[in-house]
Amino acid sequence: MGITEKLMQQIMDLKLTSKILQRQARKCEKEEKAEKLKVKKAIEKGNMDGARIHAENSIRKRNEQMNYLRLASRLDAVVARLDTQAKLTAISKSMGSIVKSLESSVDTGNLQKISETMDQFVRQFVNMEVQAEFMESSMAGSTSLSTPECEVNSLMQQVADDYGLEVSVALPQPAAHAVSVKNSEKVDMNAFPRTMGTNTSEIFTFFYRV
User: Fold this and answer.
1) Is 18 in contact with 79 (CB distance < 8 Å)?
2) Which InterPro entries does the record cross-reference, listed alphabetically (predicted)?
3) Cα–Cα distance between 143 and 145 in angstroms, integer?
């Protein structure tokens, strides 16, 4: 197996890995939505501790999803670079044969053959420029994803707002509070501490090392 064949095999392997990561990202997205529904149910029951746990799980799944997508994007950028390299290698071999043909045409003094060979030469250079520009644009846009920052309290408020829920959290025993449906009021989340869930994104920091 030549160098070009090995390079193409690596490209196929990386594309497969990228698809696996994207599948994992979709799975995390579904799990994130499921946890949000659990937040809603917990708020309806007045179980604020449970709602907080499910909100934290939802944020963690969102962070996992974004990390999977980020890593898949980086792999796609590598694939684009390798694919360009493989094409440039093929073009380089083709240009080698063109140069030999040009030398032969010059030796024989065949002007028509020289003109045709030069046309081929120009086309190969155009192809190389197009491939280089494509690689640069792919690399420029490959790492544009970023992980959104969201805390547990703001997510719980968002879920409560989406379903028109009102809940009081001012007292120390949240489970004893009643929950009612009220479309015109927002949830008062100011009493919640804002320290939980801030370290959940550290679980998958190994993705950043790739």
Assistant:
1) yes
2) Snf7_fam
3) 6
29: Cβ contacts below 8 Å, ≥ 6 apart: 61, 62, 65
Question: Distance between CA 187 and CA 53 in Å, rounded?
Answer: 18
Give the C-alpha separation, 184 to 11, whole Å: 54
Q: Which residue has the tokens 């193409």?
A: 8
Q: Write out the two tokens for 175.
A: 């489970």
Q: Are 82 and 11 in contact (CB under 8 A)?
A: yes
Tell whether the torsion through CA atoms of 189, 201, 32 and 77 is positive or negative: positive
Residues 16-73 have pLDDT tens digits of 988 999 999 999 999 999 999 999 999 999 999 999 999 999 999 999 999 999 988 8
Adjacent-strand bridge partners of 166: 180
* Strand residues in the chain grouped as ranges (E): 165-166, 180-181
**In sequence order, what are the beta bridge partners of 165?**
181
81: CB partners within 8 A, 6+ apart = 135, 138, 139
Give CA separation, 51 vs 35, 200, 201, in Å.
9, 16, 19
Position 153, amino acid? N
